[in-house]
Design a protein that fits this description.
This protein is an all-beta fold and 64 residues long. It is built from no helices and 4 strands. Helices cover 0% and strands 41% of the residues. InterPro entries: DUF2196.
Length: 64
C-alpha cells in the first residue's frame, strides 16, 4: 500500500520508513506506527510518523 496518503496509515500498522539521515542511501527502517505526525491528507515523500521505538521518518511501505 501507499504511504503517501494519510488515510492509509493508522496507529499499530507495520511499516517501513525512511529516516532523515538515511534519505541519501535509501535504507529503510521497520517498525510499528505509534503516532502520525503529518497533518495534511497527502505528502509526496510519504506521511511522517513516529514508531513505537521513537524513530521518526516518512512511510515508504505499509506491510501486511
Amino acid at each position: 500500500m501507499n504511504g503517501k496518503s494519510r488515510i492509509n496509515i493508522l496507529a499499530g500498522l507495520k511499516v517501513n520508513i525512511i529516516l532523515k539521515k538515511d534519505q541519501k542511501t535509501g535504507k529503510l527502517t521497520y517498525g510499528i506506527v505509534k503516532d502520525i505526525l503529518t497533518n495534511s491528507s497527502y505528502h509526496p515523500h510519504g506521511i511522517k510518523v513516529r514508531l513505537e521505538d521513537g524513530s521518526v521518518g516518512r512511510v515508504q511501505e505499509i506491510l501486511k
